[in-house]
Every structure is written in C-alpha cells, then in structure tokens.
From TrEMBL:
Organism expressing this protein natively: Burkholderia puraquae
Name of the molecule in the record: Adhesin
Compartment list: Cell outer membrane; Cell surface
Gene3D superfamilies membership: 1.20.5.170, 1.20.5.2280, 2.60.40.4050, 6.10.250.2030, 6.10.250.2040, GSPII I/J protein-like, Serralysin-like metalloprotease, C-terminal
Family: Belongs to the autotransporter-2 (AT-2) (TC 1.B.40) family.
Coiled-coil stretches: none
Residue intervals of the Trimeric autotransporter adhesin YadA-like stalk domain: 257-293, 350-389, 440-474, 519-556, 596-627, 653-694, 779-820, 855-883, 906-949, 991-1024, 1078-1114
Length: 1204
C-alpha cells in the first residue's frame, strides 16, 4: 500500500466515513488482502465511500460513528459494539442511550451501557456486565462473571461457575462442581448441591455450595448456610439490636474462625487469647485474694472464733438495718451529685415541697396548678379546634414512620458486607451493626487468635463468678461493721422514700408539715425529671404565646375557610355537576335551563364526550359513507331511481321486497315470488307442456293440431284458422244468397205498404223487423229463395236454410272431425267437477307437466292483462336499476345498513325522531342543529369555566394559590378575615396532611397536640379528647415502641422513632445512645413527673443548625457529584485506552489489518477500531485508530514505527 493510500484511509476514518468489510468484493473499491496495492483507489478511501474488504467466510464488519458490528447477523444500536455471529448490542425496543457491547457468538447486550462477553452471554440490565459462556446479568447494574453465572438482582454480583445472585445487592462468589467434562456442549452442567446461591436482599454467599435464603444473611465458606438472627444476645447492660447474622458453616458443620485479632471496641469479637488472658488475670487475682485471706484467716482464726457469736448477732441486726435503710434512702445517681433518681414503679411523690423561688428551686403542685389553670381554657379551645386534625396527623405519622423505615433501609443498603478495615494490613474487621453484630455457627476457639463462642465465654464467666463470690463473701462480711456505721450517720440527714412502695418522698420526713425548699434543682431533661421554677416560668410563657398564636392562626384559618366556602359555593353554582335525579351530569345553570358546554377537547375513549368538530366530522364522514350506499333518485325530477353506481353500473339485486299490490292503479314493486306465480300461471294457461323457468322465461309448449305439431299458440291457431277459413267461405256464400233474398223482400215492401197490419214491419224498439201479429210470433211463408250472394239482403226461406243447415252440419261435422285434435289444444277456461266454468285458464302442452309458451302476446295495458317478456324485461331492468339505488341491509342479521355513496349519502326529508332514553329514531338536521347550538354554548361556557378552574388548579387564582410548582401555597393572601371555618353541611371536617408546626404562628398537628394533651391530663395514657371514629389511641400496659427498629426493653418503657431504644424502666425514649433526638411540641407539665417544654430554648439553634446542615449537604453533594463525574470520565478514558491497547496488528510484511476491540473498566465500556499496515520491507508499521467510551468521549490516534 502506498503512503498516499494510507493517508487517504486515515482521513476517511477520522472524517466519519464508514468502513465496511463485506463478503462480496467490489471491482472498483475493495482491498484485496492478497494484493492490496492493486485494489485501492482514491475513490474508495477518500472519505466519501466505505472501505470494502473481501473475506472468504461471508461474515462482515461495519464500523461507523454510530456503532461497530462484526459477524453474521450481528446487530448494534446507538454507540454499540457487536462482535460475533448473531450477536446483539442494542437496547430493548430500540430506545435508550445505547452504548452496549456484545462480544461472542449469540452474545446479547440488551440494555443501555450493558456488556456481554462470551458465547450466548446475556446482559439484560442497564449498565450490567456478563462475562463467560451462558452468563446472565439480568438486574440493573448487576455483574455475572463465569460459566453460567447468573446475577438477577439489582446491583447483584455473581462470580464463578453457576454462581447465582438473585437478591438485590446480593453477592455470590464460588463455583459448583461440574457434572460433565464437556464444558463446550453442556455449559450449564453442574452439581446443584454445590451451587453458590445468594437469595436474600443484601445477602452474601462466598464458597462452593454457600447459600443465603433471607435478607442480610452472610454465608462464608464451602457449604455454609446463612442463618437468621437468633435473637439479641444480652450478657449484661443494654440490649444491642442485631443488624444481621454471619454464618461460617451449617448446623453440624460449624467452623472455627481463626486469626482473629484481639478485639478493642465493645462490639469487636474476642479471641481465645483474650479469653485466656481474662481467665489468667482473674485466676491470679483470685489466687492473691485467696493467699491474703488465708493469711488473715490463720491470724484471725482465734479471734474470729471468739467473736463469731457476737459478729453473727451484729451481722443479723446490721443486715436488717441495711435493708431497711437502703430501701427508703433517696440517693444521688453518682458522685457528681448532679441528679437524684426516684425509683417508684409508678413515679414517686415528693411531699412537703416549699414553693420554689429561684430558677433552680423545685416547684410544688400548688405553684404548677396556679400556672397551669389559666392555660386550661386556652388548651381546651385549642383542643376543640385541633381535634379535627387528628386523623390527618395519624396518617402523617404513619407515612413518616414508613418513610423513616424506607430511609433506614436505604442508608443500610450498601453496608451489608463484611470486609477488612482499611486498604492495607488486613488486621481487623469491623462489623457495622448499630449495636453490634452476632456471629452464628462460630466453633469453639483453640488457638490464641481464634474467636470464642458464647458457650466458651459463659463457661469461663460461670467459673469466674463462683470463685469471686466465694472469695469476696468473707471480705464483705468484714466491711459490714464499717458500712453500718456510715449508714447510721447518713440516715439522719438522708431524703428517704415514705414507704417500701417508693410511691412518695416527703421532704422533712414522712408526716412532716412544714414545707422544705428543694434548691439547686437542675433543669429537668427526661420525662420523669423534676422541673425548676425557671423552667416552669419559661414553659408557661412559651405555652401562653403558643396558645395565643394557635388561636390567632385558627381564627385566621376560619376566616379563610369562610371565604373559601363562599368561593366553593360560587364554583359549585358554575360547575358542571352530577344530577342524581337525572342520573347524569346536568349542564343547566341556575334557572336558565340547558347551557352550552364549550372548549370540549376531542373525545378519545368510548365514554368520552365529543365536541362539535368531532360530531360534524362524524356526520360528514357518515353522510359520505351513507351517500355511497344510499338508493336515491337519478335527478331532481324524481322520475327514475338507478340502483348501483348508475345506469351504466352492474345490476343490483333488491332483496327482501314485500309483495306489492297488484290491484288496478297500484305502483308497487312486485317480488320474485309474485313474478314466479305469474310465470307459473302463464305457463299453466298456455298448456302444451309449457313451464316457467328459474330465469323468468317460459319454455315452449307443444300443440298437436290437425295432425301437425306446433310449439306456440300462434302457429296452432293459424293452422286452425286456415282450416276454419274454408268453412267460413262456404257460409259466406250462403249469406250472400240470403242477402239477395232479403233484397227482394225489401223491394216488395212498397207493394205491401197498404197492408200495414199484415205486413212484416220494422219495429224501432226492437231495431229489427217484427213478424209478430197480435203480439204473437208468426211464420213467414212462401218466402222465395233469397239471394245469398255477397251483398244480398234477401230473406232466405226454410228450404234455403235447410240446405244451409245440411251443408253447415256436414261442414261442421267435417270441421269437428278435422279439428278433433285441435280442440284438445284450445285454450279454455277450467271447469269444476260439475262442468261450471272457473275463473282460471290452464295451459296444457303435449306433456301435461311441461310449461306452455304464449307467443305474440301483446303488451298488457289493463291491470288484468297478461304481460309479455318485453314488459317483464322492462320490469327486470327497472328492478335492476332500483336495486342499484336501493337501501339494503348489510347482511341477513339486519343489524346494519351501509349507504353506498362514494362520498357519503345524504338522507333528506327525515322526520324529526323521538329524543328519548330508549329511542332508536334517526334525528334530522334541525334537531342536530339545536344540539350543536347547545354544544357550542356549552363549549364556550366550559372553556371559560376551564380557564377559571385551570387558574385555580395551577394556583394562579382563587383563595388557594401556588405560583411555582414547588413554591409555598397561600390561602386567602389577598383577602381579609381573622378566622377559617372548615365546617360543612355534614358537620366539622378533618384537616389532613398538616406538618408539625415550628414557628410560633404555625399550626400544630395531632402528634404535637397529643403530646400536649398527654402532659395536661396528669400522666394518663396517650389519648385524644374527641370521641369520634378518627380519635387516635396509643396505649400499652407493659412497654411499647413506634418506628422502624425501635425497641423498648425496660418495664413500662416507650420508644418512639426509628432506631430508638428505651432500656430503662418507666422511661420514654425518642432515640438511642449516639442517635438522640429532640422532643418538640411538649406541653407544660402539670404533675411532678411531667416533662417541661424546652422548645423555645432550641428554636434559634435548631434553625441555624438546619440551615448549616442543608448548605453543607448541598455543597458536599455538589462536590461529590463533580468528583463522581470526574471519576467516571477517568474510568471511561482508561477503558478507551485499554480498548486501543487491545487492537491487534499484522505481523507479516505487506499485510494489512482492520481490527476492533472493546473493554470494561469500573463499569465504563470502551471500544476502538483501527487499521494497521506493515510495509513490504517489514520495516515500517503504520497504525490509525478511533476510540470511544460510554461517557460519550471519542478520540483518534495515528502512529508509525520503524523496526530494526
């Protein structure tokens, strides 16, 4: 390859031109690896076209600025890299930021920044990593390394063959025993019993077959099984909550924990050496005591014997005195004399307390009642106003408790692993449980550095306790005399309990009447501590101010609620509301009836309202579709209807046509059945075997007339007419002769004019000659033969008529003989059984079952005329045209009719339909217009209403406003008023979601008020004054705790808040050692054991502390985020560098190579693609590559080297 070509290739790579290595070589722009100098062209590598490299396998590599793929059917999404046949590096659904990497046959990286390396490896979670054959990283941020390793939980880690980490943030490290040596064909073959499984959230399993099945468990070692917390071990002192359990084995297969460094902190594990040291120290101490006691005992043996009886007597008396004195002595809690603890089971009454004067003096109940009494009325008023808030506060407390639990879980999420302290040395392990961590399944320690278990420790302590008790008993006896003397002196001036019940302490002694001042009383802190006058004054002043503020706030809130109620009433009048009587929303406004709803958005779902545009569009679309199928007149004259697309269209069948009226004057259409009956009747009338065909035609009859066969009535009648015609001629001749006779008779009429009476005269009434005489018929005799020629009017006589009669009879006989067969084919009326004529004619052909065709039938005109085929075809044509325009059902179900107009079909002259709940009538335009007018009006009204509602909903208008989404919410800021009334028609309302008040004018919630009520009710159980269903009760006879991980182990103790510990009897704790909390909203105490309110002392400090903390957290968070981004950028840079370093290059002279590589470093992926070339002299090596990473950083490098 020439230098010019190398430069052009590098330019093409850096200007973004794609590089394609394809199975099919191209003649003009490909690189022949056998002879590259002959293959390249400027057009191929000038940066405008891909670089094509032929291969023999048919696989391909595609490198572009968007992604890199290599292999048959390899697929890569945005910024993705896919290497291997069927590999896939693309986010599911094609969405996301991409950046996934899949390397290996069938490797699948299906999420953003996911990496899958290995045959059929799957990385399905975001930023997940799967390395190894059939490995799977399913959870987000999960990592699976090893053959068939499976990391399913979020942020889980599975390392080793078949390791399974299914819990969130779980860790499984270890490999199972394979069950087949065929690691290629059966990658999933392993012994399930030796599979490492971490099944619980934040659990850890390390070692072949190690298993954890519950949250926070730790199993270390082959075959170890995670153990649940076995309870809180208590050897003395405060109970320590257990944050989890670590197992080093399984029941029956425990392990020793060796090389345990000596514990230093209280929660550190101790090793055997420490235990031995303790035992050694104790043994030495006990031995020394034993030696000294033995020496003293020997020396005093005689003395003891002498005074034993006296000592025993004194000891008995002393014991009684000690018990009696110590039982009722009130003592300081320690040598600092800073506090006195009264240990009555239900509190202790201090009687005879004089009224305190100084700030550190104790106050008596008289002073307290005098200060509290004026506050009771205010408290009662506040109680009635705040009672409605109780249910809301209860919900808030529940939410806060839940939130506290969730926060606690989140804070401990990444602190579940057991690890060495520091980054070097590895000489200590610190368990991070708040109050220590229990190690389960610890075998008995042997070596000095081994951990000891509870059994060993209890054994040593038991032995030590017995030895110490025996050796110290004598020493304690020797000290009794001295103690008795000191107790006697102390009793004289001691403040003592009044009785053994420790229920009261009377200053000056039980029964004393004179008050005694209790001076130098420190500020009470705990709930049962005494308060001094200074605290009482401050509490009273603060409570007065708080009650005044609460009263003012409640008054203001009432005024605002009153205003809000008015606004709500106005909104209700203008709002579209449900009308129960109508069962629907009613758009009427006041007494104005129906109103228009404006600004209605286009409906989407089936139950959404539609606006006018949708309705008009639907009508237009429906009209267009209806017009396309409608049957309509051809023009405005309404004289013709053409079915189908018009006269030129295909005929349309008109079905389900009712039988039309066939009476005279009827214009009804007839149906096929009627026409069939007509054709059947016609065929029957024709006879001669004529039949009605399915197509409406009639088959030809067959008539036998005069020995001939005729297929239509006309031919048969013609033949018969010809034969009858000759007879007619003969008759006409006779008629002529008769006519001649009549002429002669007429000529004689004049001659006999006088013979009127006897003459044959014309009778006008009869319209003929009347031969009657005297009213009786007469014969005309002697009548000469009349002329029977044509035109003759002669009368004929009997002789002539006789001849004619004979002739006619002869001819009729002949005709009858000749027409014998013809008579059979004559169409005639049907007759009944009696020979009476019926009103029907049956046509019978030669075949009595065949239909008869009537030909030459004139077009019928009268209603009762027969119609011919031409008329029938006209009807058929009309029916066809009618069918094309007829409105028909779509199918036999008759559930729909589709109008066939191409652009919709208009239906006019539609009568107004009934508008009712069950009406199925069609509505016409005028009805729809009225609806549209109302909808338009409603749309405008709704638009105006929505604008108002939107402004109210967005906090831009109305009584309640919020200008910014996260800004403060104001109520009635632009209106006056000094009280808010929340009452409604159903009575008082509950105001929920009230945060705890901090400032003097803040509202207090039920949690704050419950505390105040508790203190004001003379140390009763916590209860609310209200009696409704929303009252919150918290009461427990023994002990109780509220909050995640809160514990109350002391008798009658209460722990409130996440992690709180109450381990003293009759104590109330809101925190734990090292995790203390402030108690806020405490009402002034009324009884000696009530807590006092110190909130006013901490307001300013709390505000300053919170502000500083918030600012510090913000700044630290910003620095951390910046550092974290920088760290990820650095990891990305390292990943890019690793990918570049992984690019191979050719080794043979004159060889070229296009290569790609990918890498992963600390969760960041890098990729690189490059081209390298070795000159024919094998001296120069030229390389050019491009890099990128998942931090969206890209780079390029070009280098050349000379080897010698």
């Amino acid at each position: 390859m020439k230098r010019k070509q190398i430069s052009a290739l590098a330019a093409a790579m850096f200007t973004g031109a794609g590089v394609l290595i394809a199975g099919a070589a191209h003649a003009d722009n490909f690189v022949d690896r056998g002879n590259p100098d002959n293959a390249l062209s400027g057009q191929c590598i000038d940066g405008t076209n891909p670089l094509c490299v032929s291969t023999k396998s048919g696989s391909y590599v595609a490198v572009s600025t968007a992604n890199v793929t290599m292999g048959t059917n390899a697929k890569a999404g945005t910024s993705g890299i896919a290497i291997g046949d069927q590999s896939n590096a693309s986010s599911k659904g094609g969405s996301g930021s991409g950046g996934s990497i899949a390397v290996g046959v069938g490797a699948q990286a299906l999420a953003n920044s996911a990496t899958a390396i290995g045959t059929v490896a799957v990385a399905q979670g975001n930023t997940s990593l799967a390395v190894g054959r059939q490995s799977a990283a399913i959870g987000d941020f999960s990592m699976a390394v090893g053959n068939v390793a499976d990391a399913r939980g979020t942020s889980s880690i599975a390392l080793g063959h078949s390791a399974l980490a299914s819990g969130d943030r779980s860790v499984a490290i270890g490999g199972a025993n394979p069950t087949s040596s065929d690691g290629v064909s059966n990658g999933a073959a392993y012994d399930a019993a030796t599979q490492t499984r971490a099944g619980g959230t934040q659990s850890v399993a390390i070692g072949a077959g190690a298993q954890t099945n519950d949250n926070n468990q730790v199993a270390i070692g082959s075959g170890s099984v995670g153990a649940n917390n076995g309870g809180t071990p208590v050897f003395g002192g405060t109970a320590a909550p257990v944050g989890g359990a670590v197992s080093f084995g399984a029941p029956g297969n425990e392990r020793q924990l060796k090389n345990v460094a000596a514990g230093a902190a209280d929660t550190d594990a101790v090793n055997v050496q420490q235990l031995k040291n303790v035992n050694g120290t104790l043994s030495t101490s006990i031995a020394n005591v034993d030696a000294r006691v033995t020496s003293v005992g020997n020396s005093l043996s005689t003395t003891i014997s002498n005074v034993d009886q006296r000592v025993t007597s004194v000891g008995n008396s002393l014991s009684t005195s000690i018990v009696t004195a110590t039982k009722n002595v009130v003592k300081y809690t320690d040598d600092s004399h800073a506090a006195i603890a009264l240990d009555g089971s239900n509190g202790t009454t201090i009687g005879g307390v004089a009224a305190g004067v100084a700030d550190t003096d104790a106050v008596n109940v008289g002073q307290l009642k005098g200060s509290v009494a004026p506050l009771q009325t205010s408290i009662s008023t506040a109680a009635s106003n705040i009672t409605n808030l109780q249910a809301s506060v209860t919900g808030i407390n529940t939410s806060l408790s839940t939130a506290a639990t969730n926060i606690s879980n989140l804070q401990a999420a990444d602190a579940r692993n057991v690890k060495y302290d520091g980054q070097s040395g590895f000489d200590s392990v610190t368990f991070v449980g708040t109050n220590g961590t229990t190690l389960h399944n610890v075998a008995a320690g042997v070596a000095n550095t081994d951990a000891v278990n509870v059994g060993q420790l209890n054994g040593g302590l038991s032995s030590l306790s017995t030895s110490v008790t025996n050796n110290l008993s004598t020493t304690l006896g020797n000290l009794s005399t001295s103690i008795n003397s000191q107790i006697g002196n102390a009793t004289k001036n001691a403040v003592q309990y009044d009785d053994d019940a420790h229920g009261g302490v009377t200053l000056g002694g039980k029964g004393a009447q004179s008050p005694v001042g209790l001076h130098n009383v420190a500020d009470g802190m705990a709930a049962s501590d005494a308060v001094n006058v200074g605290q009482l004054g401050k509490a009273t002043d603060s409570l007065n101010q708080s009650i005044t503020t609460v009263s003012n706030n409640v008054t203001t809130l009432g005024n605002q609620v009153t205003t809000n109620t008015g606004n709500i009433a106005a909104l209700q009048q203008d709002a579209l509301q449900w009308n129960a009587s109508l069962g629907t929303y009613d758009a009427s406004h006041g007494g104005n009836g129906a109103q228009r709803i404006g600004n209605v958005a286009a409906g989407k779902n089936g139950t959404d309202a539609v606006n006018v545009d949708q309705l008009n569009s639907a009508i237009q679309n429906g009209t267009s579709q209806l017009d396309a199928l409608a049957v309509k007149y051809d023009d405005a004259s309404k004289t013709q209807v053409s079915l189908g697309a018009g006269n030129g269209g295909s005929p349309v069948r008109l079905t389900n046509v009712a039988e039309g009226n066939v009476a005279a004057g009827s214009t009804d259409a007839v149906n096929g059945a009627q026409l069939r009956r007509a054709t059947d009747g016609t065929a029957a009338a024709l006879g001669g075997g004529a039949t009605a065909n399915p197509d409406g035609s009639i088959s030809s009859p067959a008539y036998k007339v005069g020995g001939g066969s005729f297929n239509n009535v006309g031919d048969a009648l013609t033949n018969l007419d010809g034969r009858v015609g000759s007879n007619t001629t003969t008759l006409e001749n006779h008629e002529t002769r008769i006519g001649n006779a009549e002429t002669n008779i007429a000529g004689n009429t004049a001659a006999i004019a006088g013979l009127q009476q006897d003459a044959l005269q014309f009778d006008p009434k009869l319209g003929a000659y009347n031969a009657a005489r005297g009213g009786a018929p007469t014969k005309l005799t002697n009548v000469a033969d009349g002329n029977v020629a044509a035109g003759s009017t002669d009368a004929v006589n009997g002789g002539q008529l006789s001849g004619v009669k004979s002739s006619l009879e002869q001819q009729i006989t002949q005709v009858s003989s000749q027409a014998g067969e013809a008579v059979k084919n004559v169409v005639k009326y049907d007759v009944d059984a009696n020979g009476n004529r019926m009103n029907s004619v049956s046509l019978v052909g030669g075949d009595t079952n065949a239909a008869v065709v009537l030909k030459n039938v004139a077009a019928g005109t009268a209603d009762t005329d027969a119609v011919n085929v031409k008329q029938l075809k006209g009807v058929q044509s009309s029916l066809n045209q009618l069918g094309a325009l007829a409105v028909q059902y779509d199918d036999s179900s008759k559930s729909s009719i589709t109008l066939g107009g191409a652009g919709g079909t208009r239906i006019t002259n539609v009568q107004a339909g009934t508008l009712g709940a069950t009406s199925t009538d069609a509505v016409n335009g005028s009805q729809l217009y009225a609806t549209n007018q109302q909808v338009a009006k409603n749309t405008t009204d709704i638009t105006n209403l929505q604008g108002n509602v939107t402004n109210i909903a967005n906090g831009k208008a109305g009584l309640v406003q919020q200008q910014d989404p996260n800004g403060a919410i104001t109520v009635g800021k632009d209106s006056g008023g000094t009280s808010v009334n929340f009452s409604g028609t159903a009575g008082d309302r509950v105001l929920t979601g009230v945060a705890a008040g901090v400032k003097d004018n803040d509202a207090v919630n039920m949690g704050q008020f419950n505390t105040a009520l508790k203190n004001a009710a003379a140390n009763d159980q916590i209860r609310a004054a209200a009696t409704d269903a929303n009252t919150t009760w918290i009461a427990r006879a023994d002990a109780g705790s509220i909050g995640a991980t809160a514990t109350a182990t002391g008798k009658n103790a209460v722990a409130v808040g996440q992690g709180s510990v109450a381990d003293r009897d009759n104590s109330f704790s809101v925190g734990a050692k090292g995790s203390e909390r402030q108690v806020t909203n405490v009402a002034a105490g009324t009884a000696p054991t009530d807590a006092v309110n110190v909130q006013q002392l901490n307001d300013n400090l709390s505000a300053a502390s919170n502000q500083a903390k918030g600012y510090t957290d913000q700044r630290i968070g910003q620095v951390y985020n910046s550092f974290n981004d920088l760290k990820k950028d650095m990891y990305g840079g390292v990943a890019s560098a690793m990918a570049v370093a992984g690019l191979p290059q050719p080794t043979g002279a004159g060889r070229s190579m296009v290569s790609a590589a990918t890498s992963n470093y600390h969760g960041q992926q890098g990729f690189a693609a490059g081209y390298s070339y070795v000159t024919e002299s094998n001296r120069w090596v030229v390389k050019a590559s491009v890099t990128g990473n998942t931090r969206s950083d890209f780079g390029a490098v070009v280098g050349a080297g000379y080897q010698f």
